[in-house]
Amino acid sequence: MKKFINKTDDMLVESLSGFASAHSDLVALNLEPNFLTRKQKASNKVAIISGGGSGHEPLHAGYIGHGMLDAACPGHVFTSPTPDQMLMAAEAVYADKGILFIVKNYAGDVMNFEMAAEMLPFESATVLTSDDCAVINSTYTTGRRGVAGTVIVEKCVGSLAETGADLQACKALGEKVNSRTASMGVALTSCTVPAAGRPTFDISNNELEMGVGIHGEPGRRREAMRPADAIIQDVTNAILEALKPSQGNEALLLINGFGATPLMELYLIYNTAAKLFNQHGIKVVRSLVGNYTTALDMAGASVTLCLLDDEIKQHWDSPVHTPALRWGV
Amino acid sequence: MKKFINKTDDMLVESLSGFASAHSDLVALNLEPNFLTRKQKASNKVAIISGGGSGHEPLHAGYIGHGMLDAACPGHVFTSPTPDQMLMAAEAVYADKGILFIVKNYAGDVMNFEMAAEMLPFESATVLTSDDCAVINSTYTTGRRGVAGTVIVEKCVGSLAETGADLQACKALGEKVNSRTASMGVALTSCTVPAAGRPTFDISNNELEMGVGIHGEPGRRREAMRPADAIIQDVTNAILEALKPSQGNEALLLINGFGATPLMELYLIYNTAAKLFNQHGIKVVRSLVGNYTTALDMAGASVTLCLLDDEIKQHWDSPVHTPALRWGV
Amino acid sequence: MSTAFILIAAKNIRDTILDHESELESLDREIGDGDHYINMKRGVSTIVEMEADLAGYPPDAVLNKIGMKLLSTIGGASGPLLASFFMGMAKVLKEKGDESTHTYASAFAAGVDVIRLRGKADLGEKTMLDVLIPVSRQFTQLAADNMPVPQICTVLITTAEQGMQSTRDLIATKGRAAGLGERAIGHIDPGAKSCQLMIAAVCNLLLEAKESLG
Amino acid sequence: MSTAFILIAAKNIRDTILDHESELESLDREIGDGDHYINMKRGVSTIVEMEADLAGYPPDAVLNKIGMKLLSTIGGASGPLLASFFMGMAKVLKEKGDESTHTYASAFAAGVDVIRLRGKADLGEKTMLDVLIPVSRQFTQLAADNMPVPQICTVLITTAEQGMQSTRDLIATKGRAAGLGERAIGHIDPGAKSCQLMIAAVCNLLLEAKESLG
Ligand SMILES: Nc1ncnc2c1ncn2[C@@H]1O[C@H](COP(=O)(O)OP(=O)(O)O)[C@@H](O)[C@H]1O
Ligand SMILES: Nc1ncnc2c1ncn2[C@@H]1O[C@H](COP(=O)(O)OP(=O)(O)O)[C@@H](O)[C@H]1O
Ligand SMILES: [Mg+2]
Ligand SMILES: [Mg+2]
Ligand SMILES: [Mg+2]
Ligand SMILES: [Mg+2]
User: pTM above 0.90?
Assistant: First the structure.
């Protein structure tokens, strides 16, 4: 394992400190328990809090700011944060209209946020994101995992909250966006959890993991390396199967890098994915290409399609001012 | 080599097509010869054109748009573009006030842009960027290489050009920014040029390349892997030696990922670098952390410091609207 | 079971977990995300560091404090579950107000029930419950039979081991491995392994000490 | 040297470059950026593909078109330099209007001079010029001595080889290796290698063909 770190135990705090200092105009950092909030506390709105294991940067702290999150609770690498973080963060950003937690659907995250919600002295609601369609819904699963589509949920819900909408409306929009969003990822290499010091999984030089999770969880299958077009065709097919869009549906296409895949390849993937969706009658009218929900140093990428309607489009387009997403301001 | 590609020969065009289609609101792509321009041609301003080998994305095409470049000419991977590209791009974006080429200081880029400038039917000037202080200026060198500091030059010059400033003023600002900017990079792994199919250099699991170039060119020395603080101390010292800043100097600190280094590590580097510069009396008042000038899939990062004055600060802060840098709009 | 015993047991648990670093790490890398060992290590080490703060309290308060601390140190799926377990145990101990083997058996069962509720999971889903539920049932039965503590311990060590081994051939339907389908087969669940280790650590300590629960 | 000969030579050059893929690639990986082989391949392949378009033109026009084409296909440092070389040669051929060995020698020298100007480089800087300058000097001398073409070719093959080898022990002061200082020592310059290969390809063809330049 070669990484820019000092001690694995200090890595998270050092990285959070760097983040907070690089973006000191936008965010403030609290340590022990660890959470980040907007620099300027918002007033009279639903406070949106997300969080999860670290290693997915810029998720979630990178999305703190006007039009998106009020706070984020980073856990250790790939480990869900603990309820004390959520409680303190909620205390810091509560703005008289309740707390909305946006939580990726993993047992650990769900339970920790659930316990926080139970202890919370404020009204709260939770949106679980579960856009990863690699996990086929069946009797064998507790449901799908939350992956890159979470960014779209956070953006739209954040936008709605800014208008003064109430907790239930925010939750409803989050669930709508989540239900219209599907993602699937492909890994070319494993990630390496710093504290573990070695790759999470072994993968040979001519294999790929189809449907990999953002923690390196195994996906649908291990298979032989193929040309990008063939790989992406399987990915877009899985997404189409999950979403069953109708002809002429407008969509947002997000090509997300897992951390070690260069932009040049991500744009190549975009090119293929956009063409394939287009062949299925989908109009890609919004795009996002880059590292938005990473898996440490994994080489790989995911494709996310979100079926737009006027409401979602409006909230996607509205101004946002965060370290990792910014427009209109 | 595992990459998301179909055929290495098609990779560049497929990636450019994806880029142009993902950002069709901002840029337009011409193929054969390959160049990209703003979607909306600007009028009555110096047209800023940059370019260079591909593989450094988002440099340069990612910086096309209001407040930055008018056009970019992408060469093959790590290979400078050819004069016909610059000539056609200039023709497309010429806006009555001359053409300014921003060129990274590599023999190939310099010569190709020079030949284009000689053939150009318009008035033109060139700013050579040479911020890489890994290459110690001595009788042995033709000068330093242009690396991530190029982004800062492009941002500031682009801003000035937007005000209607003339060619010489734009060139002068570019040269000023360049002279106040120094960078140094560290590689933990090599990059792999797709057409070559294997890593440009061999590096063992406990080594790093100090002062590496953005094409994988050897740097100052190969050395044993060390904690991040120790590595970054050498880097910041080299930068301080190159810039010799005075106490209290305000600065922009850019931590640039080479393509395969996660944001979590880049922020950790930021944390260390900012502290070290601060200890030398430098006030870091502007920051940029992310993949801005990459080296394909290289794991590694560079630190860039730009000594600000009021003029540079103003042009850095001014609105910019490009695929890869956006604020104020 | 005195507070002093709990504190010694905490050390034993920590040592056992640390001794099984590579095994726990591998298991979670195979069908999870690779952090289970680190999560457990963080939790059990913190408890041992709390020793001085816990020493003055009765067992139920100690277990409750351990639960609270685990809740804010482990994280992940195992954090809230193990925390719930200790808090659930503490509640029964406090209510019953005695320290008989029966009380410990029902406290253990209550702890397991909180895990079931929190995790919405049951036997056969390839989780820590495949160790905890059989152990709890066995414990309740043997306590009802008034079997002496050392014998109970010997049986529970085996029950835990069998439960842990049983996860190998299961398809996971809860937790991070739930997405894997058939691919989870052949791998032991990391949480089941660490629970088996912790149970063995405590039982072995009791066997050595020949100390009774009552 | 007829247009027909130039077109055959272009094929020979392409084949030679393609035959040395791994060597050229390695050299530029060692002290450059690894693209020199690909750049050269792109250039020489395109020229061969142009065959039909070139066939009807006199040698000077053909060389000029080759130069123009290389300029827009090779890129990098070698592109404008090699392009300049052919355009420089073409200019002299056109001016002199004859195809004597002397004319070719001075055309070659003119081509090399354009490279020097364009690259602001000279002998001993670890570039292609360490092959081209000695070859050009030798060629001029031998042409002045009226040595027959086959003998000239034999000598030039050796001169090019020596020039190429000489770059091994040089510190680079131009081009991408210029930043390396001492670390460039021990590596042959890729541009020098490809120039040596191209010169050898043409000379060998002339030797085989026993065809005179004049
Ligand atoms: N719903 C659940 N009920 C019971 N145990 C569970 C549940 N979900 C996960 N677990 C247990 O948690 C273990 C994983 O813990 P850990 O790796 O620390 O957390 P995470 O899965 O969040 O990375 C699993 O091996 C399993 O035994
Ligand atoms: N200034 C120069 N003068 C002469 N030759 C040069 C000069 N700069 C570079 N070269 C030659 O170009 C070769 C490199 O070509 P190539 O790899 O195709 O381009 P790049 O260096 O741009 O990647 C070097 O090996 C050297 O022979
Ligand atoms: Mg985890
Ligand atoms: Mg090159
Ligand atoms: Mg885990
Ligand atoms: Mg090269």
Answer: yes
